[in-house]
Design brief:
By secondary structure, this protein is of the alpha/beta class. Helices cover 45% and strands 15% of the residues. The protein folds into two domains: 2-158 and 351-372, Glycogen Phosphorylase B (Rossmann fold), CATH 3.40.50.2000; 161-349, Glycogen Phosphorylase B (Rossmann fold). The protein is built from 15 helices and 13 strands. Helix 8 crosses helix 11 (259-265), helix 9 (201-213) crosses helix 13 and helix 12 packs across helix 14. The relative contact order is 0.12. The model has no long low-confidence stretch (mean pLDDT 94).
């Protein structure tokens, strides 16, 4: 199959990470695949550094004739069969190329959209199939008429094999604890995500202070970095730590590529987000076999089943968050049972190969739909 993925933005986050992982998998498994993204963005730089086929492309003005002509030229030169778009700008440009390719529109976030005739036309007529990363997101699109139930599907997150089978986890734990300055016998929570207000790290720090009042003093590793727009928020977190006297319990690691190893280093994973579609961090923690405490938002409860595969708490509620974290730290039987059930779920449904098999089936379905269009007509590569 010949596939083009598109990322119009310049920042780095979960969507960009997920897309580049897909490009890498498709290349490894014999497909002709490219990523189109602006050269001054993080996605382009990281894909290029990884040796992936990446093309400099600017989607800033999606309806501009020059943008449309450039994309059409690219699709023809590469004989692309499927374009998988990931945000609004690239999806708009791809709408003008329906006579050349099948268009898949992927949605990674759970912020509600409004309906309307123009948006409905862009979604229902401008894409052959829709992929959402959580069923709640798909349901919202169906509810406002942007998605067709027969041409939409949710494909959740995955964990690659290093999360399922990390070599020598005992040595990894000791090495990383020494690197980060965490005592070997300390209980350590790991929180992975970009540092920004919607990820709720400020509520997590407030919960950490409440745990101290309960006689519990765990360590916390905050894994992730802030964009320039969130620099003030990050500074506020450090001020919050200092004011609460918690600076000695928290380590900010910055962005890291060794998330599987960091999860092995910790004892549990916490996701205090205020909004999520379906957090890949939860899936990764399941695969590693670590207990999860997460906010009950978006698509989180689709996989974090309360008191079955993890604990759910209301968002922005440090008191309830602290209670759940305390339970995980003190009720070892319940914690072990939940972690085992989560690992079993991950092994059954959340391996990367399984998710990509689902994705390829969507591409085939999109191509079949494209061939049946009255106008414009898509024939595909022969």
């Amino acid at each position: 199959m010949r596939i083009l993925h598109t990322i119009p933005g310049r920042n780095w986050g979960g969507m960009e990470h997920r897309t580049i992982e897909q490009v890498r998998w498709l290349k490894t498994h014999g497909h002709d695949v490219w990523l189109a993204s602006p050269a001054d963005g993080e996605s382009f730089k990281r894909a290029q550094a990884a040796g992936l086929p990446v093309i400099d492309f600017d989607f800033d003005r999606p309806w501009k004739p020059a943008t449309i002509r450039a994309l059409r030229k690219l699709l023809i030169e590469k004989r692309v069969e499927v374009v998988d778009t990931h945000v609004t700008r690239d999806a708009k440009t791809a709408c003008a190329c329906l006579d050349l390719v099948a268009v898949v529109r992927s949605r990674h976030v759970n912020q509600p959209l409004k309906g309307g005739m123009i948006r409905r036309a862009q979604w229902r007529l401008g894409a052959d199939h829709i992929i959402t990363v959580a069923e709640c997101t798909r349901s919202q699109l169906l509810g406002i008429g942007l998605a067709d139930p027969k041409r939409s599907v949710s494909i959740g997150g995955w964990a690659d094999e290093r999360f399922f089978d990390l070599p020598d986890p005992i040595a990894t734990r000791a090495k990383l604890r020494a690197e980060l300055g965490l005592p070997e016998d300390a209980y350590a929570w790991v929180c992975v995500g970009m540092i920004r207000p919607d990820k709720g790290q400020d509520h997590l720090l407030a919960a950490l202070a409440l745990l101290r009042d309960k006689g519990l003093t765990p360590w916390l590793a905050i894994v992730g970095s802030a964009t320039k727009e969130c620099a003030d928020y990050e500074r506020g977190l450090h001020a919050q730590l200092s004011a609460a006297g918690l600076a000695g319990q928290v380590v900010f690691t910055g962005y890291r590529d060794d998330v599987s190893e960091l999860m092995q280093m910790g004892d549990a994973v916490v996701i205090p987000s205020l909004t999520e579609a379906q957090p890949r961090v939860a899936v990764q923690a399941f695969a590693v076999g670590k207990p999860v405490v997460a906010s009950n938002v978006g698509g989180v409860p689709e996989i974090v089943l309360d008191h079955q595969t993890g604990l759910l708490v209301p968002p922005a509620d440090p008191g309830r968050l602290a209670e759940a974290m305390a339970l995980v730290m003190t009720d070892h039987g319940t914690t072990a049972r939940m972690a085992a059930a989560a690992r079993s779920m991950a092994e059954k449904d959340m391996r990367f190969d399984n998710r990509m098999a689902q994705t390829l089936e969507v591409y085939r379905t999109a191509m079949a739909h494209a061939r049946k269009r009255i106008l414009p007509r898509f024939k595909g590569v022969t």
